[in-house]
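Review form for a predicted model. The reviewer records the input and the model, then writes brief findings.
Reviewer: anonymous (R2)
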Amino acid sequence: MLEQRIHQARLAAGLTLEALGQQLGVTKAAIQKYEKGTVTPDSAKLLKIAKACGVRTEYFFRKQVVQLEEVEFRKTRAFGLKRADAIRIRVAEQVEKRFALLDAFPDSPIARFSVPDEVPAQVTEMRQIDAIADSVRRSWALGLNPIGDLTDTLESLGLLLLTVDEAHEAFSGMTAMAVSADHQRYPVIAVSSTWPGDRQRFTLAHELGHVLLAGRLVEALSEEKACDRFAGAFLVPRVAVIRELGKQRHRLEPRELYRLKCEYGLSMKGWAIRARQCGVITQAYFQSLMKQFSVRGWHRWEPGDALASKTPRLFDQLLYRALAEQLITEAKAADLLGIPRLQFCRQRWMEPLDAAAHQ
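Model under review:
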C-alpha cells in the first residue's frame, strides 16, 4: 500500500521520477524502488516525499481505498493523459476522505442519489433534452426560477461534489462513479476551482447530464452535445427564456445578456445559445452575434465582473457535525482537512490563525 501511495502522490503532484529524486537528494532509481516496494523509505525520506508532493504523511497510511469507475473528463486535447491521471488521483484522494468521514456515522448523513423515473430509458432526439431537464427540475422540486446555489442543491441530492485546483484552461470538470470497499456507489462530479462561477455552474450541469443520460442516448447522438444542451436547459428552462427575452427577437443587447448572466448564472454566450435553441432568434442572427463575441474576445473572457466561484460546503459541515457528536477526534478532523492539528484547533474555535503572535 505504501508504495502505491508514493506513486500516486508523485503523479498527483505532476512530478517525474527524476524531479522527485532531486528534491530528496536521491537517484531516479531509488524513487522507482520506493514505488515498487523493494525499498521502504525511512521516516525522514517519507517526510520529504510528503512535502515535495504537497500531502501530509498521514496520506501514506490511510487505509480507505476508493475505485473510480466510468471516469469522464470535460477537457480538450490540450489536457494530456498525464494531467488527466493526476486529476484522477487527486479526486480519488478527496473521495477517500469523504468515505472515511461518512463511515464515522452510524447511519449515512447524506441522501443516496438516484436518477428520476422521468428520465426516459432511451433518448432518440436532441429536442427531447429540454423536456428531460424540465422533468428533472420538477422531480427535484426546483421550480423554474434561477437555482441560487447549485452546489448545495446537487449535494443535497446525494452527489459528491469536489473542486480541483487545476488552472489549465483545457480542463473544466470530471465525472466518475466512486465505489467504496463495501461496494457502495456514489456519483462524483469534480470541477476546476479556478474558473468563474458561470463556467463552474455550466460544468456542474453538464456533468450532471452525463450522470443522468449515461447509456440512454442512441448512437447517432453525441453525448457531449446532449450534455451541453441539458446544462443550458437545466440552468435556464425554455419557459424562463421566453419570459425573459420574449417569443421572438431581432437582436439582443450585451448588457441585457450580462444582467441575465448575473441572475441565472449562465454565461452571456450560454444565453445566446438558449435563445437560438428556443427559437427566439434566427440562426443568421446567432452566427452574427457569435462573430461579435469573437471580435471582442468575449468567447474567452466575457465583459463585466466575473461571477464568484463556489466551493462545496457539505464535507466541512459533516466534519464539524461528526466532531460535535464525538464520532471523530480533533486529530482525525485535522487529517481529513489536510491541515496541522494546531491550525485546525484555532480554526475550530474561530480564532485568528496568527493568534499566537499576539500572545
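Findings: The longest helix spans residues 81-103.
Further findings: The beta strands are 67-75, 160-164, 171-179, 185-192.
Recommendation: see findings above.
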